[in-house]
Design goal:
Largest sheet: 6 strands, mixed
CATH topology of the largest domain: Rossmann fold
Helix content: 25-40%
CATH class of the largest domain: Alpha Beta
Number of strands: 17
Number of helices: 14
Distance between the termini: 33 Å
Oligomer: single chain
CATH architecture of the largest domain: 3-Layer(aba) Sandwich
Strand content: 15-25%
Radius of gyration: 20 Å
Amino acid sequence: MTRHPGPIQLTSLMAWLILALGGALVPPAAVAAPSAADVPFVAPASDGASRFNPASYNPAILRIGFSVAKGKTAHPEADAFLDLTLIPPDGEVQGARREVSLKAFNALLRKLYGQLASQSPLDVSDPRAPARELHTILLQPIAELLQKHRITTVLISADAGLQAVPFAALHDGQSFLGERYAFGMTPALGLTKLAVLPEKANAQLLAAGASVFEGLNPLPLVPQELVRVSKGRASEIFLNQRFTPEVLLQKAGDPLFDRVHVATHAEFLPGGPAAARLYSGTGPMSLPQLSQLRQRRGEAQLDVFSLSACRTALGDADSELGFAGLALQAGSRSAIGSLWYVDDVATSALFVQFYRYLDRGLPKAEALQYTRRAMASGRLRLVGDQVIGAGGDVLLSGLTTAQQRRISAGLQHPYFWAGIQLLGTPW
C-alpha cells in the first residue's frame, strides 16, 4: 500500500493541551538541556558507519519563532522577523534575528513538500534548491554557534507555521540536518519534560496494532512489526481483536510499561481533539479517551509513545497537533509519528530499526538519527524478500512481490525517513 504525502501542521491544539496537562509555558532563560553526565547510556552502538560516543553527547535547546514586522524591515519584501535563541547546556543564551518574507518562505516549503511527495531529486548541490534555502533561512544564522558549542542534540521549540517544516530534509550543501544532528520538536517548552528519567528496572514495551479494518486499507506488515519491535525486551503484544480501547487504556496506564508502540490508522478530523480517532482492532477510540492514561499513570510518565502507519487529516486548522496530541494527552515524555503518509514497508522497517538502536542504549533522538543515516546511506536495504538493517540483521521478511517493488529503488530519498518526527523530550 503506497501512501501519498502531504504537510500536516502541528499547533492549534496547543492551548487546549497545555490546559489539559496542567502545563505552563516556561521562559527560555528558565530552562536548560541536561548535561551528558545526566543522561544514562547502556552501551556504545554503531550504525555501521559511525559509532555513538556518550562522552561527546551535548544537547541544547533552540527556540525558533516568527514575529510580524511589516513596515519595520530594511528589505521591502520582508514582512516578518525570524528569531532564533540557542540555549546551550552551559554558557550564555545566544540569539540571532533575520528578516523573512512569509510569502517566499511558504512557497519554498510547498515546493519542498512537492519534491518529497513525488520523490523527486532535491537538487541539494544547488544553493537555490528549497532544502538549501530553507536551511539557510532557519539554521544558518546559528550554525556557527552549534559548532562552537559542539552541540550533538537539539530540542527545537518552534512556533506555529514552523512545526510542519520537515527539518530532517533541510540541507547545508554537505549533509541533511536529520543525518547531522539528533533532534526533537516541541510546540512549547512548557509541554516538554526536560528532566532525565531514572533507569527503571524491568520496564516493558506495550506493542499494539491492527492489520485489518472496516472501510480502511489493511496494514499487512503490522503483525510482523509488533513482533520485531518487541524483540529482545520484556513486552506484551495485542493484535487486531485483542487490541481493544480498554486494553490500550489498561495496559498503557500501567506504570510497568515505559514504552508504547501502536501500529494502526489514526485520523485527525475537523473539530479538534473530540473528532480525532485512533483505530483499535475493534473500532475507533477518541483522543479524549486517551487522556485517561495520564490519570491512570499518575507521576509514572510514559517515556515514549510511537504511532506507526497512521492516517492523518492534512492541513486542518483544528487538528494541527496530529499524532503529537495523542502522546501529549497520554502524558508521554515523547511522541514519534509521521508528518506525511509513507509507504508501509518503509515505515515498519524504520520503526524496527529505531527500536533496535533504542534497546542498545541510544537516546531517542540519536536512535532516530542513526536510523535516518542507515536509510539515507542505503545500509537499510532490500535483499530478496527481506529488509536488512544497518547491522546486517533482518528487519522484515516475507515481503510480497508488490511490497518489494515499492522499495526496490532503495530507501535513500528523504521521503522515506524525513517525515518521521520525534516530539517532546529527545533524551
